[in-house]
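[SOLVED] Predicted holo structure with zinc ion

Edit: marking solved, answer below. Original request kept for reference. I posted the sequence and ligand SMILES and asked for the 3D complex as structure tokens.
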Amino acid sequence: MTAIRFEKFGTEIRILTPLKGFTEETHQVEVRKDPLLGHKSIYNPFLREKVKFFFHECDDTLIGEVIKVSEKNCDFCPGRIETSTPSVVSHI
Ligand SMILES: [Zn+2]
């Protein structure tokens, strides 16, 4: 069996950014090719902080509280999946 081979290469793109009055910026990006479908995607580490623009800062305190409240009923917490989810009948 042949292992899936992930292909990627670095390149440079130039954009006119509206965040800085449409001045030109050069970004080093990584082009990644999906080994199954052949689709290409571009990862731009320069825009890593852009996620915060859409999703805002992560509230770690709130997330901790949600985890604490939900863990008593969570099927995926460690050790619980074997006892709280259906299993396959052994003769199948
Ligand atoms: Zn859990």
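OP edit: The two ends are 28 Å apart (CA to CA). Thanks to everyone who chimed in.
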